[in-house]
Write a structure and sequence with these properties.
The chain has 263 residues and is mostly helical. The protein has helices at residues 15-27, 48-61, 76-83, 91-97, 103-119, 125-138, 167-170, 182-192, 202-205, 207-220, 223-228, 232-240, 246-260, and strands at residues 7-8, 70-71.
Amino acid sequence: MCLVRSVGKSGRNDLTDVMVFQILFNLNLPRFPAPKPAKLDPDGRIGPKTLEAIKSFETRVMKLASSDELLAPGDATVAALLAGLPPGPSKEKLRVVMPRALQSKIDLYYDPLVAGMKKYAITKPLRIAHFVSQLAHETASFLYAEEIADGSAYEGRADLGNTQPGDGKRFKGRGLIQLTGRANYTQYKKDSGVDCIANPAVVAKDPFVAVDVACWYWDKRKINRLADADDVKAVTKAINGGYNGLDDRIEYLGRAKAVLGVK
């Protein structure tokens, strides 16, 4: 679902849910008759302006006789807000899925995502929903394309192919699904032609490579078939090796399904 909990007067008003409504409201402004209301600041705070926005959308766009200024997951107002989004993948939809993402990061990765998903057949709405939701969790909403740790913990890890001194730091996790270890970098170089052995930092610094390596990882592990089965646990295990952050991934997935029209 697009909202996890209630928003509005007497609602739960969790910050992320309020942000989602505020973003959706702004995206629906073209549907308002004149005079159009002002944009909301998507700060996640409930207040008079946000409550008035709920009322205004329900009475002026939906043409309801009155408004209780309260939204619930899956209700008619949320459905009407989603109906105002453009068809297909878009930057606007990414912003709804990742309400805390910086617009600059969405701008940076959007075109690489479109290219990478097309290249690796991540094109069905359900596949896109699972893929984007996993990236959202792995990168903290596109904030990180490189792990914060320096990689020294991977030094000498033969299972990662780190057989040369300095390999741990040199081949630390990078990309929107983190590529880790000399062996994985070597395989990606072989398959993609990107020389990430001579220049490992390119996996994080070049947005097209950062996205492509995530798509490559997804394809190598045949995760499309898990996404087609709508098995979020299996998809998460294939990405993470376990179920770390499962609830967070599920929340992202709910919003991704909602904006892509996946039932």
